[in-house]
Amino acid sequence: MSDSIVWILLTVALVAAAVAIVSCYRSKRVMDGMERLLRAAMEDDFSDETFDESRMSAIETKFAHFLSASALSARTVNWEKEKIKSLIGDISHQTKTPISNLLLYCELLQEEELAESARSNVDAIYGQANKLRFLIDALVKLSRLENGILVLSEKKVPLQPMLESVCKEYETKAQNKQIALILQETDAHAMADVKWTTEAVGNIVDNAIKYTDEGSVTISVKPYELFTAINVTDTGIGISEAEQSKIFTRFYRSKDLAQQDGVGIGLYLAREIISAEGGYIKVTSKPGEGSTFSIFLSN
C-alpha cells in the first residue's frame, strides 16, 4: 500500500474521530441544557431570562418554551385554585349565619302554641332549612376535595373508637324510627383520616337508617390481607341491580323514593372521601332484602 493511500486513510480516520467528538460534545451540551431546564422547572425557578436562546440548540429552545408555558399554566391553576378556595370560604361563611337563624326561629315557633296547620308549616320549614344546611355543607366539602384544597392525612388507626362515634351520632335517629343500631366490636386497624372517614361512614349509616322502616342497621368489620372492610348492613327496602351503579352519582334520586327525604349527595360524598384515601365502596343488595355497603380501607 502506497504512502499516499495510508495518509488518506489516516486523514479520513482523524476527520471521522473529530466529527464524532464534536457530535458527542454537542449532544452532551444539549442534554446538559435540557437537564438544567428540567432542574429549574422542578425547583419552580424557571424563567425565560435564565437562558440565552442565541446559544441554545433548536430543541433546547423549543423545550424552554414548552416549560415556560407549563410554568405559566401551573401558576394559573394555582391562582384559580386560590380563587375557588376563597369562594368556598365565602359561601360557607355567608350562608352559615342565616341558616342558623332560620333554624333558631323555627325552634322558637315550635315552642309556641300554634294551630295544627301552622305547626305543620313550621315543621316543614325547619326540615327544609336542615336539608339546606346539609346540602351546603356537603357541597363545600366536595368542592374542597375535588379541587385538591382539602388533603386527607391517612394513618393506621383503630376502627372501634371511630365507629362508636358514628353510632353515638346516629343512635337518636335510629331510636326515633325504632330501629336497632348495632355495632359489633372489633380490634382491627386500617389506614384512614379519622375525621373524614367518620364522615363517610356516617353518611352511609344515615342512608341505611333512612331507608329502613323496621329491623336493624348493623356495623361490622372484616379484615382481609390488603384491605379492611367496614360493613353497614340494613334490613331496609334494598336496591335493584339496575340502580346499584347509579346511587353513588351526584344528586341521584330514585323515582321510587321521591317521597323520602334526601338530596342525593351523601353517598357521592362518601365515595369521594374513601377514594381519596385509596379505598373503595361496594354495595350488595336485593329489593326487599336489605343492603350491605362495604367500605374497603387499606391496611
If you had to describe this structure to a student in words, what would you say it looks like?
The chain has helices at residues 3-42, 58-110, 116-146, 159-176, 194-210, 241-244, 266-276; strands at 155-158, 180-183, 189-192, 216-223, 227-234, 280-285, 291-298. The chain is an alpha+beta fold and 299 residues long. Helix 1 (3-42) runs parallel beside helix 2 (58-110) and helix 2 (58-110) runs antiparallel to helix 3 (116-146). The longest helix has 53 residues, at 58-110. The model has no long low-confidence stretch (mean pLDDT 78).
Q: Largest sheet, if any? A: 5 strands, mixed
Structural class: alpha+beta
The number of distinct helices, counting runs of at least 4 residues, comes to 7
Percent range of helical residues:
55-70%
Radius of gyration: 31 Å
Mean pLDDT: 78
Number of strands: 7
Low-confidence stretches: none
Beta-strand residue fraction: 5-15%
What overall form do the CA principal axes indicate? elongated
- Lateral strand order in the biggest sheet: 2-4-5-7-6
Secondary-structure element sequence? HHHEHEEHEEHHEE
Q: How many angstroms separate the termini?
A: 78 Å
In short:
About 60% of the residues lie in helices and about 15% in strands.
Please describe the structure with a list of short key phrases separated by commas or semicolons.
elongated, alpha+beta, 14% strand, 299 residues, single chain
Reconstruct the topology from this structure.
Layout: H1 3-42, H2 58-110, H3 116-146, E1 155-158, H4 159-176, E2 180-183, E3 189-192, H5 194-210, E4 216-223, E5 227-234, H6 241-244, H7 266-276, E6 280-285, E7 291-298
Parallel strand pairs: 2-4
Antiparallel strand pairs: 1-3, 4-5, 5-7, 6-7
